Structure formats: C-alpha cells, structure tokens
C-alpha cells in the first residue's frame, strides 16, 4: 500500500481479486464473528472497517472497500483510507467556508480598489484566509501521518481476510 504521494489526504488503492465478488464480501461478513479488533459494516458492495470507539481518536482512519463484480471468476476491490466521515465533512466545510470568505473579501477588495478607497483591511483578511487554509492542509497532513500505523493495521487486516480467498 504505497502512500508516497504527499498531497493525497485520503489514499486510495485498487486490487483485482480472482474470486466472485459475493465470495469476497462473505469473507468480510464472516470475519465480523471471528475477531473483535475491528468493527466491520457491510452495505451492499461496500465494506467499512474501523476501530472500536474506545481505540479511536480524532484522526482515526477507517477503510472503505468497494468490491465490484467484474465477471464470474474475478472482482475489483477499490479501497479508500480516510478519517471518520463526520470529521471529513467538518474539515471540508471549513475549507469551503474559508474559500467563500476569501472570495467575498476579494470582491470587496476589488470594489474598494476600483472606487479608489482603502482596501488594506480586506486584503489582510484575504491573506489571513490563505494562511488558515495552509494551516488546515498541514493539520490534515499531520493527522494522516499520525494515523499511518493504524492505516497499516487496517490494511493488514484486509490482506488477512483476502488471504482466505486463495485457499
């Protein structure tokens, strides 16, 4: 699972599995009963693997797997690591809010510049929004870096379950 791309906050991967997709989905269903280290939820062709509440922290990752039918003898697994969806939604809300404030103050700055009025405050707030945006980006990167061990645990568990497809 290479995560060498430093820009990607939510790493993705793809695997082709030489088994019918229902067989693979059933393996994840069965693993719910045989282990207690992870919480596994299945909805149609989607499997969500996450840590129990007592082991979670703010940046705890979860692994979302989508197992798509390819043909009778194979399927395609698409994996996505990411934080809790609530955390991710809040994080994206902050990004859009900052972008909206930046655009609004950009319009106000341009208007004041056109009217030959002072626009130093508006320009300062635009600069502040850029600084906050970078701070959010680095906070997300730090959160991802602090969760690498947990991501490896989730990935190893997924590989353990998929090993059963080879037998």
What letter string, H or E per element, gives the SSE order? EHEEEEHHH
In spatial order, strands of the major sheet run: 1-5-4-3-2
Query: What is the structural class?
Result: alpha+beta
What value does the Rg take, in angstroms? Answer: 22 Å
Q: Ends: how far apart?
A: 23 Å
Q: What characterizes the major β-sheet?
A: 5 strands, antiparallel
Strand percent estimate: 15-25%
Mean pLDDT: 88
What is the strand tally?
Answer: 5
Contiguous runs where pLDDT drops below 50 for at least 5 residues: none
What is the helix content? 40-55%
Dominant shape: elongated
Instruction: Tally the helices.
Output: 4
Structure overview:
The chain has helices at 21-34, 85-114, 120-146, 148-163; strands at 12-17, 39-43, 46-50, 61-71, 74-83. The protein has 167 residues and is an alpha+beta fold. A five-stranded antiparallel beta sheet has the order 1-5-4-3-2. Helix 2 runs antiparallel to helix 3 (120-146). Strand 4 (61-71) and strand 5 (74-83) form a beta hairpin. This is GTP-binding protein.
Entry keywords:
167 residues, alpha+beta, GTP-binding protein
In short:
The protein is of the alpha+beta class. It contains four helices and five strands; from the N terminus they run E-H-E-E-E-E-H-H-H. It has a five-stranded antiparallel beta sheet.
Topology:
Layout: E1 12-17, H1 21-34, E2 39-43, E3 46-50, E4 61-71, E5 74-83, H2 85-114, H3 120-146, H4 148-163
Antiparallel strand pairs: 1-5, 2-3, 3-4, 4-5
